[in-house]
Amino acid sequence: MGKKIYLPAITGLSLLLIFISSFASASPIADFRDLAKSAIPTVVNVSTERAEEGRPFSTPFDFFRGHPDMDRFFGPFEDFYNNRSQRPRTTHSLGSGFIISADGYIVTNNHVVEGATSITVNLDAKNHTEAQYKAEVVGADPETDLALLKIQADNLPFLQFGDSQSLEVGEWVLAIGSPLGLDHTVTAGIVSAKGRNIQSGSYDDFLQTDASINRGNSGGPLLNMKGEVVGINTAIAQRAQGIGFAIPSSMAQRIIGDLKEHRKVSRGWLGVTIQNLDPSMSKALGMKDGKGALVNSVLPGQPAAQAGIKDGDVIIAINEQKIADTEQLLRTVALLSPGSKAVITVWRDGKEEKLNLTVAERGQGQTASGKDDGGGAKGADKILGLNVRPVSPEDVRRFNLKGNSGLLIVAVDEQGLAGKAGLQQGDVILAANKQSVNSVEELDAQIGAAGKQRGALLLQITRQGRIFFKAIELEKKK
Fold first, then answer.
1. 20: phi then psi, degrees, rounded to nearest 5
2. Is 63 exposed, middle or buried (CB count within 10 Å of its CB: 0-12, 13-18, 19+)?
3. Structural domain tally of the chain?
């Protein structure tokens, strides 16, 4: 007869303890206490003042305005009200930022400080002996919405940039800022998506996060669990909850470095016009995945032409980094340093070819002919946000033009005056202020004249066989 074995009874409480233990070991609870404690002293509140023109407001006497008998009674009194209302007024706004060096360099968003007449940086009073400083703008880049500030201080705690490219969807991130004026607010979430295009500019490549971000968080850091800055909180989805966007550190670090060293941003330039592929184009070109940027035209004398890139090539990689579409090509090229070497992989005649190219600087020393005169397209580029060149015989055929006169728009800054007026890549400028323009110099002259005389520029445009006019408001020069 065998020996009896007695097992201890497993009670309901024991089962519950076993379940809790196994769940805890599989899914550890995130703890942000140490991370928040070390990062909070590096995050600042940015407050600004702006001078704005006053606007007239209605008065009880508006009903009588223009009446021949009542004007003499109410006109002077109404003028008093309107004169009062049109006086300049000061507006205030709040944002966030973070310290990146012990000697007082601070990163924030351009829209936080743009147009400010006074900028005050408030540090965490619990961690600093002096909590308020006046700041100056070292440099700003509206195209990526980044700005670099400087305060006169030293021995400050600071944050370091991390690698946003190595982030994976689902990773924990921490946001710190001043939402709705509540300074040094800490919120946690995960990386919801990468590479988001929210149609805010030419270089959209945002991180999406569900860490709570509100007005006032702009310019604050998005941190990984190592305490490194992987993003700069910039935008929110207005009609959603738990959807915020941050500029990735892979882009911001290069931009901030340029601003600190040169007070401006230098971007790479290839000298091509491009478009996305559709399934029919991919099939015709013998491509399986249909990824890349199709070269519409190559500008004479520019880096792409010198490297041997041709019309009809598809750029599929730069320095072994795959290019999915035109947007990725624009972002990738913009981050290339002018003067650096790049290997461009193109799809041509059913196979890949690698071409060596020296990157130029966008908007600097480039005229319509591609020759370097040291000046560039001063009016078209810097005032209108356009890159143009004279129409070529090939353009006449491609765009079905009636003559070989005018300036072809090869690039448009969507946030510039021309972009906001609706001008597009591929448009041809026939005339400015009713004067024919066939060179960048002629267009610049008309832009300068319009700025001094009327404050508006009238352009005659042809687009896909249709001719029309566009007026662009300019800042009138004295």
1. -65, -40
2. exposed
3. 4
Tell me the two tokens of residue 333.
């090229």
Is a pLDDT exceeding 70 seen at residue 6? no
pLDDT digits (tens, 9 = 90+) for 187-229: 999 999 998 988 777 788 899 999 999 889 999 999 999 999 9
Q: What is the mean pLDDT of residues 397-421?
A: 80
| N-terminal to C-terminal alpha carbon distance within the chain | 114
Q: What is the pTM of this model?
A: 0.64
Lowest mean pLDDT among 18-22, 246-250, 453-457: 18-22
Q: What percent of the chain has pLDDT over 90?
A: 39
DSSP string, 362-423: TTSS--TTS---SS--IIIIIII-EEEEEPPHHHHHHTT-SSS-SEEEEEE-TTSHHHHHT-
Q: What is the predicted pLDDT for the residue at 471?
A: 81
Active site residues: 111, 145, 218
Across 155-271, the runs of DSSP E, i.e. the strands, are: 172-177, 185-196, 206-209, 221-223, 229-236, 244-248, 268-269
Instruction: Please check whether residue 208 is in contact with residue 235, taking contact to mean a CB–CB distance below 8 angstroms.
Output: no
* 27 occurs within a structural domain: no
253 plus 228 within the same structural domain: yes
Segments of 113-171 assigned E as strands: 118-122, 132-134, 136-141, 146-150
59: containing domain = 39-150
Task: Write out the two tokens for 126.
Answer: 């619990």
CB neighbours of residue 326 within 10 Å = 17
Residue 245 shares a structural domain with residue 282 = no
Is residue 353 scored above 80 in pLDDT?
A: yes
Contacts of 151 (CB under 8 A, 6+ apart): 104, 106, 121, 133, 134, 135
The mean per-residue pLDDT over the stretch 115-128 comes to: 83
Query: How many whole angstroms separate alpha carbon 302 and alpha carbon 285?
Result: 25
